[in-house]
Design goal:
Radius of gyration: 21 Å
Distance between the termini: 26 Å
CATH topology of the largest domain: Rossmann fold
Structural class: alpha+beta
Order of helices and strands: EHEHEEHEEEHEHEEEEHEEEH
Shape: elongated
Oligomer: single chain
Number of domains: 2
CATH class of the largest domain: Alpha Beta
Number of strands: 15
Number of helices: 7
CATH architecture of the largest domain: 3-Layer(aba) Sandwich
Largest sheet: 10 strands, mixed
Helix content: 10-25%
């Protein structure tokens, strides 16, 4: 996600002020400086050493943007307001501070991280009243998650070792929920709060297994007992029956006509995040789980 793609000449007019969250090497900040002038560019990162090295690189190129080592979720109120905010690190919510630090009509482009789903790009427009709204993009944008984001990956090992839970058959193949190329996986990730997954074939040559783990401790072990043909077997445990929930969401998504990602949008206001299909005021709206956002 480079500034020349979504924040190029057409998207960042002369005079715009841009906040970049995730300085990294300083490469993207250099592009923004070249486009807008360094005085209109602010870039922040949690890592002090990264910021200092980026400062040196940018100075070598003749650029001196506003740089700061700070929590990205806080934005940069000292240099606000901004016309554009671009995040090159993934958050599991849209920070309210960002919305508050923008002018009406500003754009926020960020990757949403839902435990392994950092590729979900959303482009929001703010209205000056504390609301930000816009569509998810059709393409991926993979970035590392913030350090503050809980990670479900360590729970995969625990799920593998857990021999408890309830077992039943399922006709739903695991690939629809554990494959980034599947259009339903996006819908499932958002409305369950996201989950990590791991696919493997046992060393004894048994049927292929896929383990899913949610950061609330819920887990699923999906076994392809029939090979690529249904039915399969699921064993699940934890605070909720995650696979049951995924099956219900798949039925709902199918009834909606199997909509693709870019038909969905997000409205953020007062800390509440609402997913919607086609129209923010339409009949198909879902409030995202609080566990995803806090």
């Amino acid at each position: 996600m480079r500034s020349t793609s979504r924040f190029g000449a057409r998207h960042v007019p002369e005079g715009h002020r841009v906040l970049e969250v995730g300085t990294g090497t300083g490469y993207n900040a250099a592009l923004l400086c070249h486009r807008l002038g360094a005085e209109r560019v602010t870039s922040i990162d949690l890592d002090t050493s990264l910021v200092e090295r980026a400062r040196q690189r940018l100075a070598h190129l003749g650029y001196a943007p506003h740089l700061a080592a700070t929590d990205g979720a806080l934005g940069a109120p000292r240099f606000a307001p901004f016309d554009r905010i671009i995040a090159t690190v993934a958050f599991d919510r849209v920070p309210g501070a960002w919305i508050a630090q923008t002018v009406p009509g500003a754009k926020i482009l960020m990757p949403v991280d839902l435990t392994g789903r950092a590729g979900l790009l959303v482009l929001l427009t703010t209205d000056g009243t504390g609301l930000a709204q816009g569509h998810f993009l059709s393409h991926q944008g993979w970035f590392m998650a913030t350090r503050a984001n809980p990670d479900a990956q360590p729970l995969l090992g625990k799920a593998l070792d857990d021999k408890t839970g309830s077992t039943r058959e399922t006709a739903l193949p695991v690939t629809v929920a554990a494959n980034a190329q599947e259009p339903f996986e996006f819908f499932a990730a958002l409305l369950t709060g996201g989950y990590a997954w791991l696919e493997f074939t046992p060393s004894d040559g048994g049927p292929r297994q896929t383990v899913l783990a949610h950061r609330d401790g819920s887990w699923v072990n999906h076994t392809a007992t029939g090979g690529d043909q249904a039915p399969c077997t699921v064993r699940q445990g934890g605070p909720r029956l995650l696979w049951d929930e995924i099956e219900r969401l798949h039925e709902q998504w199918t009834e909606l006509g199997r909509p693709v990602r870019e038909r969905f949008g997000l409205t953020v206001a007062g800390g509440e995040h609402v997913l919607w299909l086609d129209d923010p005021q339409g009949p198909h709206r879902w409030t995202l789980p609080v566990s995803v956002l806090e």
